[in-house]
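tool_call predict_complex ligand=iron/sulfur cluster
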Amino acid sequence: MTPLPWPLDPPPLFKDLLVEPEEARSILRPQKDERYGFGFALSPYRGCAHGCRYCYVREYPNALHPPEDWGGWVAPKLNAPELLWSQRHRLHNARVFMASATDPYQPLERQYRLSRRCLEVLLLCPTTEVIVHTRSPLVLQDLELLRAFGDRLSVGLSIPTDDDTVRQIVEPHAPPIPSRWAAVERLAAAGIQVTIGVAPLLAVHDPPAFARRAKASGASGAWVGGLRLLKQDPFYKMLADHGWLKVLDPDYAETIRSAFRRVFPSRKRVREGPASCPVPQAMVMATQPGLFDRVG
Ligand code: SF4
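tool_result ok
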């Protein structure tokens, strides 16, 4: 595994981010729903600096800070790679989803390299399949490592809208949409299977052009996932204020899905999907397994 210098000082870029390194007690979270497309969720960080406005992880019971502070703190699990190595016997013929409650390529990964080091462990588990899901082109820093997995790894990029002005309001600290398209293209050109997660579905400016852009990027498939709002979620007001309540309408989601089906004709290439980037526990698993379907 890649040696790391310790201790690490947060770089100036993150001076307003509360970084709270911790020693995790566990790292593999089993998925009990058999319809789930993977056996374990693996999150090298707790919290997420992307701080998406709709992210329901902010109310998870193990959150270190109140929901209103979501996006302002991250706890890197310093021992994640070692813990994973000690648990590798559980990974035989298993699927691992990275990550379920954080973004494995949020900015701190540039410094901590915990996702990379976990992937290095997974690479040594030859029967383990891996799904990496992110909103960030930072994933490209591990391009060669991802390639080394061959067809037992796929990458999902969340691109929930074709309009970066929507992204700036809803995901202000996540990378711009154009940079995500560039990441998809680089990954696909490197021979890595990439799936677009239109999730959670936000306001889309031009559905047919959006779908064509996905196809042209080299992605092998896509899924469209609806929003999952918490009880009395303040995000509802944001949707209302911007005239975006249509994203909660199943017919709207079906419109977007239809546009994607036109460019990805095989039905299994455009699926319904998780309700957001952090894959929810119960509602989505019937549709998630296809991430590893071999297409094309
Ligand atoms: S939706 Fe994903 S990227 Fe956004 S804050 Fe939540 S975990 Fe991070």
